């Protein structure tokens, strides 16, 4: 069963930090060095200092930046920049945004403390692979601060929409307790309501309790790190209560059946590659794909979108050519990967990685994991400009992975390649967070 608990969240004090848009951030793993610098310049209490540190801090803190973050968090609490809610609460979180098609959508989430469970228990399921370095980084932060700063984005099954109906009733007619925008996804409105009514909290817990197969949308590294940290703390404190904070993860729970659930494509930009020219790669691809030459990159984007329900299709853009590639027959993937289930091997990202990047281009799985020749992009136009400027050899454009594919892979125990999904918008960091001590 999925056990959730209300918690005493830590938040910015509105009396001292009135403009939340200047302090909230994107999740830590989406913050580039340039974004980091901009966040630091926006406000002296920007949340980036708590999730990525501040390189301008004193030399003693630089020796262990994680301890420096812990000291900073305690200091901000002491001087009143941050406040701790006086009673355990749930937090209803809405994001209002425009879809790629221009439709205004509202995605609803519940922020709660979720009891940690190993993946093999089947309550929480992963859908992507993780890397060691990010987990070690977040583990060091957990150890030093004893704080879960950013929510893990989880999807839960709710075909009858019961939980969203409960949440809607709880906030109906109430103005949000806070509302803000964020610098780098500035067209997304973030709204949050605090729920303290014990009866409402109990109803929400009861509705979530029987659920299983909660799928991690974003935050795989943080969830796995939380499991490691829990094991460490249990070894040190074997007699501690099971309700101690480190037994829980800060989670933002969204219904798998929410009509506003949106996944964007993540494109692959290939750079520093010289084994095959674009013409040679296109010629090699014809053994497995139908290759349709097009005259303009914009045609590739439009045609690709029109075929989003068809598998094994992606766009190819080089400086002197562009085309649509369509896998001739899915039996090609069955012969290539006979031991993997069809739902996994027929994903567009799997076709691209396994058949094109590894087999045709000769890139190793290890070099792909290290992104030696790859850069992942949300913005197709940015990738096209990089190719035209000669900064990369070519660009592979993909359609977004569908929600039903994420669900099927997770339930089958199959993990997708890195960057298979880009759930939009991202859960903003800095609205509310949870102490683990």
Task: Describe it.
By secondary structure, the protein is α+β, with helices and mostly antiparallel strands. The chain is built from 16 helices and 21 strands. It has helices spanning 33-42, 48-51, 59-62, 65-78, 132-145, 162-171, 198-208, 220-236, 278-285, 297-306, 331-336, 342-345, 348-360, 365-369, 380-388, 403-411; strands at 4-5, 10-12, 82-84, 90-98, 104-115, 124-125, 147-148, 152-156, 178-181, 189-195, 214-218, 248-255, 262-264, 267-270, 289-294, 313-318, 322-327, 374-377, 394-397, 422-424, 434-435. Strands 1, 4, 5, 6, 8, 9, 10, 11 and 12 form a nine-stranded mixed beta sheet that branches. A hairpin with a 5-residue loop joins strand 4 and strand 5 (104-115). It is globular, with a radius of gyration of 23 Å.
Our count of helices gives: 16
* Backbone structural class: alpha+beta
Intertermini distance: 24 Å
The total domain count is 2
> What is the alpha-carbon Rg in Å?
23 Å
Low-confidence regions: none
The amount of helix comes to 25-40%
Oligomeric state of the chains present here: single chain
């Amino acid at each position: 069963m999925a056990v959730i608990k209300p918690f005493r969240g830590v938040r910015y004090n509105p009396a001292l930090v009135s403009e939340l848009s200047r302090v909230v951030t994107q999740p830590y793993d989406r913050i580039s060095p340039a974004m980091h610098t901009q966040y630091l310049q926006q406000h002296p209490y920007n949340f980036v200092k708590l999730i990525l540190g501040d390189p301008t801090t004193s030399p003693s803190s630089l020796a262990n930046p994680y301890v420096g973050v812990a000291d900073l968090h305690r200091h901000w609490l002491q001087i009143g920049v941050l406040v701790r809610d006086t009673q355990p609460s749930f937090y209803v979180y809405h994001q209002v945004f425009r879809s790629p098609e221009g439709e205004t959508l509202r995605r609803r989430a519940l922020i709660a403390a979720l009891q940690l469970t190993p993946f093999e228990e089947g309550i929480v399921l992963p859908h992507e692979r993780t890397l060691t370095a990010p987990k070690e980084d977040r583990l060091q932060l957990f150890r030093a601060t004893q704080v879960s700063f950013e929510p893990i984005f989880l999807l839960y099954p709710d075909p009858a929409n019961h939980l969203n109906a409960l949440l809607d009733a709880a906030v109906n007619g109430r103005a949000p307790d806070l509302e803000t925008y964020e610098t780098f996804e500035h067209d997304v409105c973030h709204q949050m309501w605090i729920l303290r009514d014990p009866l409402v909290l109990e109803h929400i817990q009861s509705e979530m309790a029987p659920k299983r197969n909660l799928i991690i949308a974003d935050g795989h590294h943080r969830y796995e790190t939380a499991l490691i940290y829990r094991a460490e703390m249990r070894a040190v404190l074997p007699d501690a209560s099971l309700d101690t904070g480190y037994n829980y993860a800060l989670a933002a729970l969204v219904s798998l059946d929410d009509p506003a659930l949106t996944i964007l494509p993540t494109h692959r930009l290939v750079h520093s590659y010289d084994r095959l020219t674009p013409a040679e790669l296109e010629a090699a691809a014809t053994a497995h794909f139908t290759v349709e030459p097009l005259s303009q990159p914009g045609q590739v984007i439009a045609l690709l979108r029109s075929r989003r329900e068809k598998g094994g299709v992606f766009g190819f853009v080089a400086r002197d050519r562009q085309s649509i590639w369509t896998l001739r027959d899915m039996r090609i993937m069955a012969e290539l990967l006979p031991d993997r289930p069809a739902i996994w091997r027929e994903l567009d990202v799997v076709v691209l990685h396994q058949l094109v990047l590894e087999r045709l281009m000769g890139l190793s799985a290890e070099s792909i994991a290290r992104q030696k020749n790859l850069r992942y992009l949300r913005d197709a136009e940015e990738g096209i400009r990089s190719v035209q400027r000669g900064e990369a050899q070519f660009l592979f454009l993909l359609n977004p992975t569908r929600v039903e594919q994420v669900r099927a892979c997770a339930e089958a125990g199959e993990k997708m390649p890195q960057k298979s999904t880009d759930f939009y918008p991202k859960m903003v960091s800095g609205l509310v967070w949870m102490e683990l001590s």
